Structure formats: structure tokens, C-alpha cells
Automatic annotation (TrEMBL):
Main location: membrane
Gene3D superfamilies referenced in this protein's UniProt entry, alphabetically: MetI-like
Pfam family, one: BPD_transp_1
Segments crossing the lipid bilayer: 9-30, 103-126, 138-163, 196-214, 251-276, 296-322
Protein's name according to its UniProt entry: ABC transporter permease
């Protein structure tokens, strides 16, 4: 297992090196308008101390834009490995500080959605497989197709109309109420949690459809196996057949799928956070992309790349952990 883990980790590091090079190439190929605009902004501030030309040269040197593609990449990757990502042009603070200020909101939102997704989708998928071609199966299939097909912005608009406009139970967007500063610590927590209800529902609804169908498909495959028919022929109770034999083997692909999605809890939900004005990492990245915040964009793309590779690594390791045939091969 140690040899397998080391091998997969080395592969991930090599892939990350080339992915980071692609990220830098994309940024290097962008028009210089963003850098020139930032240089003009810095030069026009009171007490700037430098001219536009000097600021432009400093910004280009900071990210290796003046050294050519390959040499510039090694300059940038060297700074990144030292944790020097620069200051965000939009948020006017270090990129890592803005990341720390926003990522935990995204993590909290993603974690709640992840837990609800497991609680809802897996039992419904198993129930649909047990009652194949019955009412439960058809109902689950319809619900899952609706969830998969429903656009995020449409669902968010419907939730806002019902809970904010018609019922007036929740605020239409944002993370805090007007009297937030006058609340106790526990009251502040409840206030923020209240603003996360609609975003959490949105993320859960658009996510449960695919997991529901995945669970149903794998459960059907296991229930049609020879050893399941043998267990039933021997008179094993149906509940024991499902819980002890069928679900244990269905759990293998589910573990790898859910394990691979764990790093995604930190990546943020760009569309959902933007629609509800939740200042998570997804919302911050969207604002940075719109306004040409090159330092934050480069950091966010590198962060997403690391999460993707980490998700694949976790998937491989979990599959090897639950299936001995992978380790032996």
C-alpha cells in the first residue's frame, strides 16, 4: 500500500507541475491591459512614489512577465513555492489572506450540502433499486432527472421568490442582517446560518440527482449478482441481504465517488455564492476574474488544480483500501 501511495503521489506532483505551467501560460497570454490598468491606478494614487513606467516594470518583474514564458514560469513557481503569491488587486490585501477570509464560508456551505446529499440521495437510490419498476423507482427517477436538469440560477430564483419575497422568512441575499453587530456571538452564528439556508438547499438539490442515480445503478448491479440470488435461495432475510451483502459491495464505488468529492468542499460554489452574495472563495474568484485580478486568479486556478489532483489521489487510495484486488495488481 505504501508503494502504491508513493507512486500515485509522484504522478500527481508531475501532473501538477505541467498544469501550473498551463495556468501560467494562460495568464502570460492575456492582454497587458490589466497590468497596464493596475500600473496607472498605482501611479495615480497620492504619494505613489513611482511613475507609471516604473510600476509597470515592477508588476511585470513580479510575475516574470519580462523574462519570457519558460523563465517567467520558473520565477513565478519559485515564488509560489515560498508562499509568495502577491497582493490581490481587487481586495487590496495579500492573496493568501483573502483566501483565508473566504474559504471557510465555502467549506461550511459545501459541508452542509455534502452531508444532506448523502442523507437524501443514498437511501433513495437504494430504495429505488429494491423496488425496481415500482412507484418508488419511478418517483426517484423523475426527481433525480429534475434535479440534474434544473439550472442553478432558476432554482435560486424560485427559492428567493418563495422564502424571501412571498413568505418573508429569509433575506433575499447576503450573509448578515442589519442588526448583526448588536447580536450576541450565538445570535451572530444563527444569523449567518439563516442566510446559508437557501444556498445550502440549492447546492443539495442540484447535487442529489447524479448521486441518486449512481447509487441506484450500482445497487441494481449488485442485487442481480449470483451470490445475492444464492443468499435469497438459502432463506436469508431480505433485510440482511440488503444491508450486509448488497450494500457492502455497493459501498465500494460510493466511497471512491464521495472521497473524490471531499476536496471540492474547499473549492467553493461560484454560481451559488454569486447568486446569494455569499462571500466565499467562489464569489471572490468570480469578482477577481471579472475585474482582472491576475494574482488572485493565478492562485485560485492553482488551488483548484491541487484540489482536483488531491481528489483523484483520494479516490485511488480509497479504492485500493476497500478493494484488495487493486493493491495486489
Amino acid at each position: 500500500m505504501l508503494k502504491y501511495t508513493t507512486k500515485r503521489l509522484l504522478y500527481s506532483i508531475i501532473i501538477l507541475f505541467f498544469v501550473m505551467f498551463i495556468i501560467y501560460t494562460l495568464m502570460y497570454s492575456m492582454p497587458n491591459n490589466y497590468i497596464e490598468q493596475k500600473a496607472r491606478e498605482l501611479a495615480s494614487k497620492p504619494g505613489a512614489g513611482k511613475s507609471y513606467t516604473e510600476w509597470l516594470a515592477d508588476l511585470n518583474a513580479q510575475y516574470g512577465m519580462d523574462k519570457g514564458l519558460v523563465a517567467g514560469y520558473f520565477t513565478w513557481i519559485g515564488s509560489a513555492l515560498r508562499g509568495e503569491w502577491g497582493d490581490s488587486w481587487v481586495w487590496t490585501i495579500p492573496v493568501t489572506e483573502e483566501f483565508h477570509n473566504t474559504v471557510w464560508y465555502s467549506f461550511a456551505l459545501g459541508l452542509v450540502s455534502f452531508i444532506l446529499q448523502i442523507i437524501i440521495a443514498i437511501p433513495l437510490g437504494i430504495a429505488a433499486a429494491r423496488k425496481q419498476y415500482g412507484f418508488t423507482d419511478y418517483f426517484t427517477s423523475v426527481v433525480s432527472m429534475i434535479c440534474i436538469s434544473m439550472p442553478t440560477f432558476f432554482l435560486a430564483t424560485v427559492l428567493k421568490y418563495i422564502f424571501a419575497v412571498k413568505l418573508g422568512w429569509l433575506d433575499i441575499s447576503g450573509m448578515q442582517s442589519r442588526d448583526y453587530m448588536y447580536l450576541s456571538d450565538f445570535g451572530k452564528f444563527l444569523d449567518v446560518a439563516e442566510h446559508f439556508i437557501m444556498p445550502a438547499i440549492t447546492l443539495t438539490v442540484i447535487s442529489i440527482g447524479s448521486l441518486m442515480r449512481f447509487t441506484r445503478t450500482n445497487m441494481l448491479e449488485v442485487l442481480n449478482s449470483d451470490y445475492i440470488r444464492t443468499a435469497r435461495a438459502k432463506g436469508v432475510p431480505e433485510k440482511q441481504v440488503i444491508n450486509r451483502h448488497a450494500f457492502r459491495n455497493t459501498f465500494i464505488p460510493l466511497v471512491t465517488t464521495l472521497g473524490g468529492s471531499l476536496p471540492g468542499l474547499f473549492s467553493g460554489a461560484l454560481i451559488t455564492e454569486t447568486l446569494f452574495s455569499i462571500r466565499g472563495i467562489g464569489y471572490a474568484s468570480y469578482e477577481s476574474m471579472v475585474q482582472g485580478d491576475i494574482p488572485f486568479i493565478m492562485f485560485y486556478l492553482a488551488f483548484i488544480s491541487i484540489l482536483t489532483l488531491l481528489g483523484n489521489l483520494i479516490t485511488d487510495l480509497l479504492y485500493a483500501a476497500v478493494d484488495p484486488r487493486v493493491r495486489l495488481s
